[in-house]
Amino acid sequence: MSGFGDATAVKQVGEGRYEIVLDGGYAIGEALNGGYLMAVMARAAVDASPHAHPISTAANFHRVTKAGPAEVVVESRKAGRTAAASLVSLVQDGRSVVDALITTGTLDAAAEPDWAGEGPPAMPPLEECTDFRPPSGGGFADQVDMRFDRSTMGWLDGRPSGRPEVRGWFRHHGDEPLDAYSLALAVDALPPVVLNLDAQGWAPTVELTWHMRAVPAQGWLAVHGTGRLLADGWFDEEVEVWDSADRLVAQSRQIARVPRTRG
């Protein structure tokens, strides 16, 4: 497997039970990235399913998940010819840290859309975008290669745009191959869109639902994040992921918290 594949690989230890040592390389601070955790859980769900892809994931994040040993428990709810559904729990230190309802199916990589709406939003070319790494380095920023649309990164210079949006290009560090689990990572890879509303600090996700829409072509993914409402310490974030063939390959929506102290 690739580095990302190794970091998300689960070992079956019983019926519907898997073990993994969660990789601290996907942490932001002490907390592991939610997209990384969803990729781990999706691998277990697919392994326990007759189907090849995580079509829909609805995840609830209960508490901070840290690097180290964990267990994934998969409880089948349905196993059909077209789709299967499982309740999947990520357990650490004897407590469930993430629960997700994951629906699996099998997508045809060669399938063409029967209908599609507008194409991807405009993105600056790679050479006009900027990368962003925290001053300390390490962690999640070293596992992914991201280049951001400068017009959506004004918050870095204390000039938030006032629009809840962030856009960027995404791939694994070292240009490792993309797969279904890469999409789980990509939908939660952007800085929180609320940073452009001058809401500073850690923004923990409470619930995130994402859908895999197609098998991604290799190359850079374009990731577009927007929001609709910030109110009473809660904000929403919607993300679309487009592949190098300009196909919509993933969509997500999450509800998250922001600190009440504003920057």
From TrEMBL:
Record-annotated Acyl-CoA thioesterase-like C-terminal domain positions: 127-258
UniProt domain Acyl-CoA thioesterase-like N-terminal HotDog: residue ranges: 24-104
Pfam family, one: 4HBT_3C
Top-level taxonomic group: Bacteria
InterPro entries to which the protein is assigned, alphabetical: ACOT8-like_C, Acyl-CoA_hotdog, HotDog_dom_sf, Sec_Metab_Biosynth-Assoc, TesB_ACOT8-like_N
Record's protein name: Thioesterase family protein
